[in-house]
Every structure is written in C-alpha cells, then in structure tokens.
Amino acid sequence: MAVPMAVAYRGATLIDGTGGPPRPRTTVLVEGERIARVLPDAELSSAELSESGVEEIDLTGCHLIPGLIDAHQHIATPPDRRLAETTLRRDLYGGVTATRDMADDLRQVSDIARAALVGEIEAPDVHYAALMAGPTFFDDPRTWQVSQGATPGEVPWMQAIREDTDLPLAVAMARGTFATAIKIYADLPGRTVAAITEEAHRQGIAAWAHAAVFPASPGEVIAAGVDSVSHVQLMAHQLAERPLTTYRDKPPIDYPRLTAGQDPELARLFEEMRERGTVLDATASLWGRIARELAEDPAADAEALSRARANDALSAALTAQAHRAGVTVCAGTDRDPEPAEPWPAVFDELEFLVERCGLSPVEALRCASWAGAVSIGAQERMGTVEPGKLANLVVLAEDPTADIRRLRSVRLVVKRGRRHERSEFRAMAGANGEVGA
Predict the structure, then answer these.
(1) End-to-end Cα separation, the chain, in angstroms
(2) What is the DSSP string of 47-108?
(3) Residue 1 included in any domain
(4) Who contacts 401 (Cβ-Cβ below 8 Å, separation ≥6)?
(5) Closest of 36, 110, 43, 41 to residue 76, by C-alpha
(6) Residue 63: is its pLDDT beyond 70?
(7) Is this model's pTM higher than 0.70 or not?
(8) Residues of the domain holding 390
(9) For residue 381, is it within any domain?
C-alpha cells in the first residue's frame, strides 16, 4: 500500500506518550510518513482540510496512542522465515510498530528488517543487536542455531571476545551487519564489558547488556556505561554472597530479602541507572509465563516450578522498585513466537506492569512507546505523537487508561503513514487458520 499524501485523523482522545494527560477531540495531521501537526479539532475545520485535499478520517469516540514497541524479541532462533513474518504481522496488526531484536541469526533478521522498512512485508520496523560473549559461552545450543553453516563465536553477528581480541575490528564487523547495537551477553569480566561499551560508543553504536554478565556484576555492567540492561531478576546478583563466575553458575538468590522491593543496595544501583539514563528492559512478565507452562506440564520439575514462581515475584518487586526510583523501564517480552495468539505478547507485559508493579495504564503505555524508543536510541523519530515524528499510531475503540486490557480493542494501526485495518487481519487469519481473530 502506498503512503497517503496527507491524512487528518480527527475526533479521538489522544494519549500522546509524553506523559501528559489525555487530550480529547484532537486532530493528528499526517503528511507522508510523518506527523505534521497535532492540534485541537476546533483549530482545523473540515472545509479547510477539503480545500487542501487532505483525507479526513473520523475517529470520534476512539482513543489514539503511539505505536507500541516490543523492546525484547527473538525472531530467528532458529531461523524460520515464515514463522517470523507471521509473528511480526500479528504484532503489527496488534499495534506494534517497532521491535528490538536482541540477537539472532542476523543473516535472516537483516533482510526481514529491510523488507519491513520498505513495506515489502507487513511488520514492525526491526532494530537488532549483534552479540558478544566470552568464548566459554559458545557451547550453548542456541549459538549453533543462529550460526548454521559457520562457527559460533566466529561470525560478525555472534563473536567470542578474548583478552587479545581486536575490539575496534570486532565492533566494526558487528556494525557491518547494520546492527543498532552490540548485545553483551555472558562470561565476560567488568573491564571487558567497559571496553566493548567504550569502543561501541566511539564507533556510534549502542551497547545493550544482560543486567549481570557473569562474572561482571550488575554494578559493573551499569558502571561500564551500557545503554540498557535486560532481565530485572538478574539485578539480584548484585547481592550475591560469593563472586560471580559464569552464566551457567548463578549463585542462589535471597528472595525474601528482595521481594519486599526496598533493598537499599539495589536502591543505590537504581539511582545510578536513573542518573546515567540506563534503560531497564525488565521482561517482567517472563517468569510468570514460564511458571504457568511448568504448572500445566505433569512432567515438570518441582524445583524448576518453585524457582519460576520465585523469580516471578522477584521481577514484580524489583521492576516496581526501579520504576519508583525513576528508572526508565521499557516493555520487552523475550517470548518465543506463538502465531496462534491473536494479540502481541507486549500486551501481557503491560498488564503485568499495571497489575503487579503498580504502574498506571498511562505509565505502562509510556513504557511501550517513549521508553521503547529510548531503548532503541530512536526517541527523536518515534515513541510519541508529536510533529516531526514518524506517523506510528494505534486507534482503539475503548479507553486503555480505564483498563489496560482494553488495548485489545485495536481498530486501526498506522505505521510510517501506512494504514492497517484490524478487520483485514481478522479476515485473513480466519481464512488461513494461523491466528485467532
């Protein structure tokens, strides 16, 4: 579908993602793929629009929000192009206009990103990371899944970092994949995390890291200056009673101490994150999903189920503590593709943020819009409904500020000015049976 030249979306209540209150009876004027003006309906008449040749779309009674951003996905582990496109199409028609892919087989992901950007496929814009880890990590089976035909740790999108690694060359190779960032994953000391981060920033690329890199502690990772950290439960390892060693050798967590959400040492760490602008990619709802799946499996290990439930409670407590401390929290899911689900996984994350972490619906929506854009480093282009930003918009039939579950009332998604009617998605899904309506 070609991008319309000029469209005025009229009459909706706008939740613009800036943190301000909802704005009733608002017009969003879109020219090409960008927002030109945002103003009260009364300041621009239908006659003026008609005279200028602007298409007018009446959204009276609807709510308009920024396009959502899932800040933690994996769409090619292992590579499956049909599954990836099906999942991304479902996400787009559910309001996700951008996603952050946190390391995969970038040979496939880069082409999906290109196709999504130019409109060859219906999908969110994809921003992705090239991974770096210590050499001991690369017997992980996932590294083989994303390096088929090559050797894990020796490809530009998945590099093993040693003491003698030429970091300027390694980062340049990662940049050559058109990655947005380096993802610093595991089995690296704090000094190496800092060196990778410094070199990445020198070459104009972001550094995204696990909250604990083992042996690098959360404190060392944050002090290294990374742009974001993933998986809030890993923050607990700042309080480990023994030195951290490797990704596979995680020390026990003192759950009773931390689930109160008031630990002073973590409070100091969250304050440092706030001061540095380090984004927290909490993936807060992840462990609850794992716990539910284990509970439904008769053969599941009881200890694994107990640990998942403990991590679920921990994730809620620490995410709430970080948010209260003023840390920028984005909404990432880290969920495997499940194309039979009719709605994006990020809806579950937003519900968790509201129901378990105490955020208001407006605050949660900001996590999936403005904060998601910050996590990508794209806040100048997306994340809020403001003039000059990309025209990434979601039209809802119901008010999500009254109940975050009303996100499931999507009527229309606009991505880079192109319109995608939810009714068209339901009709197609019903025809091929892949996704529920």
Answers:
(1) 23
(2) HHHHHTT-EEEE-TT-EEEEPEEEEEE-S-SS--HHHHHHHHHHHHHTTEEEEEE-S--HHH
(3) no
(4) 15, 22, 63, 360, 361, 362
(5) 110
(6) yes
(7) yes
(8) 6-65+386-432
(9) no
